[in-house]
Amino acid sequence: MLTGKRVLVTGGTGSLGRALVRRLLTGELGDPERIVVFSRDEAKQHAMRLAFQQRRAATDEAVFASSAPLAFRIGDVTDLRSLSAAIREADVVFHAAALKQVPTCEYAPFEAVRTNVMGAENLVRAIREQGLEVETVVGITTDKACKPVNVMGMTKALQERILARANLDAPARRGGPRTRFLTARYGNVLASRGSVIPLFHEQIRRGGPVTVTSPEMTRFLLSLDDAVDTVFAALRAGRAGETYVPYAPAVRITDLAAALVGDRDVPIELTGVRPGEKIHEILVSEEEALRTVRRGDYLAVRSVLPELREDDAPGEALELEEYSSHHDLLDRPGVDALLTRHRMRLEDRPEFDA
User: Fold this and answer.
1) Is there a catalytic annotation at residue 5?
2) Does residue 317 fall inside a structural domain?
3) Number of domains in the chain
């Protein structure tokens, strides 16, 4: 699918970006001609370059099976000029650049708008104004974009709409269809940078307390590879303007904290809800459910724009009225099994001791 293609990953030095690049390099979607990591942090780019050059363990041989050269480009999605230059050489774009910490976005709302909203608009504008023959753009979004109550979710919701709307005036490619814009939406990623599990690990390592904002707090949890699977599923089968959503386990955060603490003498302390924080997250709202279909192991939310809702789009009608994290919660044994399966316990994650 990506054999011979030029791939651009914006925000490629983030947790999802790194996992995405690693999977692209295995060749599971074919061998790209080139993979470019685009981000504004030179230190993270340098560390990532070294990390990928030094992977020599037998378990990582697949990473080197691909002949695709990995390249790095300094730039910022808020800078139309630098983004335009990078996109000019791309066939497929994974747009992962974002300001994604909820409290940070509350205290710096315009910076969130610049990165999450204007960054998406710059991407669309670069393709449209230069008439670039980009085949597909997959935007990476979040459950917080669904019925948003915080700045991060609001800006991500706007990003979803900007990318969907872009399909209506996307440039046509020679001998082919127009650029396809779509998004992949998922919940909290286990052990991603800034997420709750590394925080809990650090608190446990210090002897506590482990801080939980509310006893009722629930979240969807999935691994980085699950997140990448969702992005790849959208790339393979998504229609223009659709948002791809995975089925993901949901947990009560107090159960997650207790499972990580285990038998240790570490207290769990309630601290109150942080600025902009939801008690429960939603992956598909009741309004979206009316235009959502099951497609294999995923849900496809069709665009709110009728021009983009194809009558022949495959999929089965969704039976749920709303897909929320407070439905079908894992019990405590289920949480234990989830952590064990993904090796998320403190003793499994020596890098968190660094």
Assistant:
1) no
2) yes
3) 1
